[in-house]
Here is the input.
Amino acid sequence: MCLEMNHFVMLGFCGLVLSTVCGFPQLIKIIKYKDSRVISLTKYVLLFVACLCYLIYALSIHDPIFVTSNLIVLAQTSVSMYFIVRFRNPGKVDKDQK
Here is the structure.
């Protein structure tokens, strides 16, 4: 039983790591190309709300792994939403920076 539990814990940890880092490639592209016209802001708002709900739950059950991963995803999602709004109209951003 203990061996099986360790496999499930490792599987859960892998899922947490993957869900925590999966947003970074998109964030890097948004920042690199300074264009977010085709990125759905609604998706990121919903992800933010979902992670906030998960965070509240994780805090209520005192699970440090869930708390940490959800804090990271909330931070990453917040930064993504900022850049999505900032680079929504890339021509305007370029003019503002001159």
Helices lie at 2-21, 24-33, 41-60, 64-86, 90-97.
